[in-house]
Amino acid sequence: TGNVRRLFLLMPNKALTQNDQAVSVYFDNDNGGATGLQAIRATGINVSDCSGLYKPYKDLNDYLTKYFLKL
After folding, report:
1. How far out from the chain centre does Cα 23 lie?
2. CA–CA distance, 28 with 52 (Å, rounded to integer)
3. pLDDT at 50
4. Whole-number Å distance between alpha carbons of 58 and 64
């Protein structure tokens, strides 16, 4: 999670904080994902949390793997 925070702190985020568009993130449905989301929001960037799309799965990869196995 510290790496995610450093990434967004190093990015030139002026454009990200000055417009109405949101950055979509697909973090894990766990404490690490929640912490990463909070870290990005703390930088002032408008963030859209997409992890609800694949609940109750741990992460997007887990969801997609199980979804395609059903096909």
Report:
1. 8
2. 10
3. 96
4. 11
Enter the DSSP assignment of 13: T
Assigned token pair, 68 = 């395609």
pTM of model > 0.85: no
Q: Which helix (H) or strand (E) holds 25?
A: strand 23-25
Query: Regarding beta strands 47-49 and 23-25, do their DSSP bridges make them parallel or antiparallel, or are they unpaired?
Result: parallel
Q: What is the DSSP string of 39-69?
A: HHHHTT--EEE-GGGGTTSSSHHHHHHHHHH
Residue where the block lists tokens 């609940």: 55
